[in-house]
TrEMBL record:
Belongs to the mitochondrion-specific ribosomal protein mL46 family. It holds the Pfam family MRP-L46. Residues 130-268 form the Nudix hydrolase domain. Transmembrane segments: none annotated. It comes from the Eukaryota. Keywords: Mitochondrion, Ribonucleoprotein, Ribosomal protein, Transit peptide. Its main location: mitochondrion. This is Large ribosomal subunit protein mL46. It is found in: Mitochondrion. Signal peptide: none annotated. GO terms for cellular component: mitochondrial inner membrane; mitochondrial large ribosomal subunit.
């Protein structure tokens, strides 16, 4: 009797496994038959223009290293020349030596005074610019210590969103060529960038609302390519496109959460 029960359990278990496998195979086949539009997206970065402001502990550590280097360093040629000239001047005043007036025409101290005067006239450029004060998110002359990322306004379905520039892949193009064409169509010829490579650095997919699935595609698969701005002085040269240059903190507030989570994985 036990043998019959065990055989019945084995049979039922095998039948359930077979049905599950069939269900999974059917689902996988249905998903493989779905049509997806391929897009290339472009991450355009404006790298930091100035070094980051040191934190208090970093400034203190830097000061300590400078002091150690000063204590262990040898005297420079300028310092040795200054000491030599000082000794010669004392001997000259005592009448023990006679030097040509040309020898002391421009001393090391004269050079040092000229350098200090030139340094006093030097005024470093401000780290906080006018674009920071007005919060002009279209300007490249802001947040000089941080990396800025380009977003452009694009229409998805019936709504417009700020996204990384993206364009539909055309037959015969590589995905890198699609990315280059997309950036040119979105931003014009003024914006000059350097692409890091031919391989995408990120991926994101989303499904279309049922009302806009006209050609049968269920959604879009976006492959992102990284690029860096060549000249931070050259911005987008057209007013036809709405765009923003945002820091990573600002991106998190602007982008949809699921989209940002994918993009943040390949942000430096």
């Amino acid at each position: 009797m036990r043998i019959l029960v065990n055989r019945s359990l084995v049979y039922v278990s095998r039948m359930l496994c077979a049905r599950t496998a069939t269900t999974h195979a059917t689902t996988a086949a249905a998903q493989s038959e779905q049509k997806w539009d391929l897009y290339a997206g472009v991450l355009v970065e404006r790298l930091p223009i100035v070094t980051k402001t040191l934190e208090p502990i970093e400034a203190k550590f830097k000061e300590m290293l400078n002091q150690i280097e000063l204590e262990k360093s040898l005297k420079s040629n300028h310092e040795l020349r200054k000491e030599t000239e000082k000794q010669q001047l004392e001997l000259l005043k005592a009448g023990k030596i006679d030097l040509d007036s040309e020898a002391l025409k421009q001393t090391a101290q004269d050079l040092e005074d000229a350098y200090n005067e030139e340094l006093s006239r030097f005024k470093p450029a401000p780290r906080i610019t006018e674009a920071d004060k007005t919060n002009d998110i279209r300007s490249l002359d802001r947040k000089l210590e941080e990396t800025l990322v380009l977003l452009v306004e694009q229409k998805l379905g019936t709504k417009s969103h700020y996204l990384l520039p993206q364009g539909l892949h055309k037959k015969g193009e590589s995905m890198r060529q699609t990315a280059e064409r997309t950036l040119k169509e979105c931003c014009g010829d003024t914006l000059q960038v350097t692409f890091y490579g031919n391989a995408p650095v990120g991926f994101y997919k989303y499904k279309y609302p049922p009302s806009v699935r006209n050609d049968g595609a269920v959604g879009a698969k976006v492959f992102f390519f990284r690029s860096v701005l060549k000249d931070s002085g050259k911005n987008i040269g057209t007013d036809k496109v709405k765009y923003q240059w945002l820091s990573q903190d600002e991106l998190q507030k602007q982008l949809h959460q699921s989209y940002y989570q994918n993009v943040s994985q390949f942000l430096l």
